Each structure stands twice: as structure tokens, then as C-alpha cells.
Amino acid sequence: MHRIAIGLLAAGLLPSIALAQGARVDQFRWLAGCWAFDTPDGRYEEIWTPPTGNSMLGVSRRIVDGFTREFEYMRIVTSGGGGFDFIALPQGENATRFNSVSFTDDSVVFENPDNDFPNRVTYTLAPPDGVDARIEGRSNGQPMGINFPLKRTSCP
């Protein structure tokens, strides 16, 4: 069995095994910290821990008129398939898992085709002090996307 796996790996048929050995959440260190942007409807904030234990923990909230109206717990972890998973718990409820479909040193795209909205989550570093986050999917059968032009801010 060991020879078969080595042969498949050498033939390029098991790239996820090779990727899993080198895939580390550390490459998203640029996402760690506090981020925010203001909208006419309030303020959106997102906070990410530094990568430790090959995971990053995040929390977001939307504040309107001094009250938290929405919040979400998030995690980025190494997946068993050699990529990364984004796990979201909106309003602290049921977890939804998104698998990475592409990633570089300054961006990552996660997808879950079974989730209507969002079914795609993207984070892209936007130097010198920003991160562009975007969620996409279908709402009432129509394509929809929301941009979050986050700027680094002081942590509370």
C-alpha cells in the first residue's frame, strides 16, 4: 500500500498530501488584528487572532445606534485535504464550513456550493492598511455580493 501511495504522489495524483504538509494558517498572518469600516447604517468590525495552533479565530459585529445588531464567530483552520477551511457561526448558531478553492500569500477564497448565501467568502490583503473582504451567493434566487472594505484600526 505504501508503494501505491508513493507512486500516486510521484505521478501527481495525490497533490493534496504534498500540499497538506506545507499548508499552514501562518501564511494568513496579515489578517490578524482589528479591522473596521463605517457605513451609513452603522459600523462593521472584525477581529482576528494571530495564527496559533494552526488556526485563527475571528469575531465580527455590526453596530447600529450603539447596539450590536449582528455578530459572527469564525475560524480558519487547515483542512484534511491540504487547503484551508473557514467555519462561520452567524449569531453564534449552527456552523457552516467553507473549503478553500484558491489561496496565495495575500488572499484566500472559500466556497460552500450547498449554502445559498453566502456560498463564497474572500479575503484579500489591500496594502498599506486594508483587507478587502467579500461575500457572494444567491438571495431570493438572484446573485448578490457584499464588499467589506476593512481598514486596520486600534484593538479595543
UniProtKB/TrEMBL annotation:
- Would you indicate the residue range of the signal peptide? 1-20
Keywords, in A-Z order: Signal
Q: Using the record's annotation, list all stretches that form the DUF6265 domain.
A: 30-136
A matching Pfam family: DUF6265
Output the InterPro entries linked to this UniProt entry: DUF6265 (IPR046232)
Full protein name:
DUF6265 domain-containing protein
**What organism is the protein native to?**
Sinimarinibacterium flocculans
